[in-house]
Specification:
469 residues; 21 helices; mainly alpha
């Protein structure tokens, strides 16, 4: 039996509901999140001063957790600025444009490429690699930037990460928690990943096409992407200090460097943060090298100017995300880091306590077990990491399977898939920042656009799992 729920858990659940409702109303949630953090701190410690200090501490914790992503996005944006100014982006896009001729080809082509690269290197570095090259090409054939972001999100952070067939980080964690061989969880997840992926991406593309035809599609970010594709600066003035042949061989060099990154990731077994760091460092080297080459004597100042532009963009994008991330981090390990050992005795984190309590308060059948694992996955995914709750999902899947006498592997896979689809970067705004930032779209708008397809996919996949248990 899990820890007894307290007022602290009640405050957290109340603010989760309020935040979700506020998001659905398309209103900002920063103030609500800050109030929630303060009340959580006051409820846990009984001290107003500790709660106020914890509010600041939660922001520090959130920024620390998000900083690698902020930095790599800033580097990619800074690099894109110099590629745009010199016309190299245009030279990079032309060969790809000949292959991507329609919005449909752009959506599905970018999605499949994202999925394949994410299987080997996880989605964060894949977003940078795919977005830097294919976003302008997609814009040129009429796929809005929000459509590119949707494709990268659903195929990378959704399909590839939820199955994780190559790296096997996710199934290893869930399998250990459930006491099962990793191969059993992977085998059970294959049909579920296929159903979830097919339903979600088809639904997302249908909504996208419908809104494009009706003129309702959000166009945020398209101007910047079109500028990147056409070689225009942000002011609309074409800036091409390099000759056409020079642009072509530098474009080839940029593509080659990123291909070498891919090879290095495979040969050196670089994954996750290490792979992302390699992509960010490569972008920084490209920025420095091309800026010095193109601007000669003014290169030193131009390097600094582009870095400033990149950091301004990165922190501008993450500004509204930090408060909401700070709140949801309080549901997991962040609470102890900010407010100390003030959780109830025996607690394993507010979110985990809620998940265990849910498991012990519902009558069990295979249908209820499937619904419960999906629900637990969704709840634990709300912290935006995707991975923090999958061990809980695995342990509860074992508990449920023991109670109903079957289906441990399917329930484990279902909990893993639901947790990662929700928290891994498809409908939690601060988790999908990489794709939103690369495509220069509003992360909250991207989360709203993904919401209905992911909900539909989870419902269909849960029903499908009931027949497999």
């Amino acid at each position: 039996m899990g820890v007894e729920l307290t007022w602290l858990h009640g405050v957290y659940v109340l603010f989760v509901i309020l935040i979700i409702v506020t998001m659905m109303m398309r209103r900002d949630t920063s103030l609500l999140c800050m109030i929630g953090i303060g009340l959580l701190g006051w409820t846990a410690t009984g001290s107003v001063f500790t709660a106020v200090g914890g509010l600041f501490g939660s922001f520090i914790y959130a920024i620390t957790e998000l900083l690698p992503t902020i930095l790599v996005i800033s580097m990619i944006v800074a690099m894109s600025q110099v590629l745009t100014e010199t016309g190299i982006n245009e030279a990079m896009v032309k060969p790809v444009s000949s292959l991507i001729k329609t919005p449909a080809l752009a959506f599905w082509g970018i999605g499949i490429a994202m999925m394949v690269i994410s299987w080997f290197f996880w989605p964060s570095p894949a977003v940078a690699l795919i977005g830097a090259v294919l976003l302008p090409a997609a814009i040129c054939v009429g796929l809005p930037a929000i459509g590119v972001a949707v494709a990268m999100n659903l195929f990378g952070h959704g399909i590839a990460l939820s199955g994780d067939f190559i790296i096997q980080g996710a199934p290893t964690l869930t399998a250990k928690a459930a006491g099962l061989p990793v191969t059993d969880v992977i085998s059970a997840s294959v049909p579920l990943v296929i159903v979830m992926g097919a339903v979600t991406t088809i639904a997302a593309y249908w909504y996208l096409r419908k809104d494009m035809k009706s003129g309702l599609i959000p166009m945020t970010g398209d101007t910047a992407a079109k500028d990147a594709a056409t070689g225009k600066s942000s002011g609309g003035i074409s800036v091409k200090p390099l000759s056409t042949p020079t642009q072509k061989w530098l474009a080839a060099a940029v593509v080659l460097l990123f291909l070498l990154d891919v090879i290095a990731m495979f040969v050196l077994d670089l994954k996750g943060g290490d792979a992302t760091a390699l992509v960010g460092g490569t972008a920084l080297l490209i920025l420095v090298g091309i800026t010095l080459f193109a601007h000669k004597g003014a290169g030193l100042e131009k390097v600094t100017a582009h870095l400033i532009e990149g950091f301004q963009f990165g922190f501008k994008v993450f500004g509204p995300v930090i408060p909401i991330a700070a709140f949801f981090y309080m549901g997991d390990s962040g609470f102890g880091k900010v407010f100390g050992e003030t959780l109830p005795q025996g607690s394993h984190g507010i979110v985990n306590d809620l998940g265990v309590a849910l498991a012990h308060t519902i009558p069990l059948s295979k249908e209820v077990a499937a619904l419960a694992l999906t629900g637990i996955g969704v709840i634990t995914g709300l912290d935006g990491s995707g991975f923090s709750g999958i061990t809980l999902a695995g342990s509860l899947a074992q508990l449920f399977a023991t109670a109903i006498g079957t289906g441990a592997d399917t329930l484990t896979a279902l909990g893993q898939i639901s947790a990662i689809w929700v928290g891994g970067g498809t409908i939690i705004p601060w988790a999908l920042i990489p794709a939103a930032a690369i495509c220069r779209v509003d992360p909250f708008e991207l989360a709203r656009r993904n919401l209905y397809p992911v909900i539909i996919g989870l419902l269909v996949t849960t029903i499908f799992a009931m027949f497999l248990i």
